[in-house]
What we know:
Blueprint: H1 2-22, H2 28-31, E1 33-35, E2 48-51, H3 57-64, E3 69-78, H4 90-97, E4 101-134, E5 137-170
Parallel strand pairs: 2-4
Antiparallel strand pairs: 1-3, 3-5, 4-5
Amino acid sequence: MRYIQSTLNSGCLLVLTLSLLQGCNNTPHAHGYRPETSQNYQPTNSCEIVHIDVGTEPQVRRSRYPNHILIGYSSYEGRPENEIPAYCSLKAFARKKGANVVLLSEEYLRTGVMSGVLPLPQQDTTYHSGSISGSSGHASYSGTSTTHTTQYQPYSSTYDIYSIRAWYLRDPTVNNSK
C-alpha cells in the first residue's frame, strides 16, 4: 500500500510540475478561447466570475454590464470550473486577457468512465537456515531468496462532463493596468 501511495504521489507531483512549467496557457479556457476584437488588452488586477444560467448571456450582459466590451469567448467540454486546479483557473486566465468580468455557464452533458489496470510490483523475501551433519563434521547455513512479481489491480472511476462557456468582458471606464 505504501508503494501505491508513493507512486501516486510521484505521478501527481510530475503532473503538477509539468503543468506549472507550461503555464496557464494550457487551461481548457485557453484552448477554446476566441477573441472578439483585434485589440490586445493589458492584464487586469481583478476579475469577477459571474455564474449564469445556460442561454442567459445576452440578457445578463444587457442588464448588468451594458457598457462592458466583449473581448473574447471560450467553450469546451470537460470538468466544471470548480474542479480545475487553482494555478490554471478561469480567473487567472481572464485577468491575463484583460477581462474584469467573466460570465460563466456550465451545462451537464454526460458521465464519463475512466478505467485501467495499475501494476503493483511485489517483492517476497524468504529466509532459509539449517544445518547438516555428516561423517566429516557439522555445518550450518543461512540465507535469503527474493522473488519479484507484479500484481495487476483494476480500477474504475466516473466523472461528470459539462459544456462550459465563458464570455470575457472589460469595463472601459476602469483603469485596469497592473
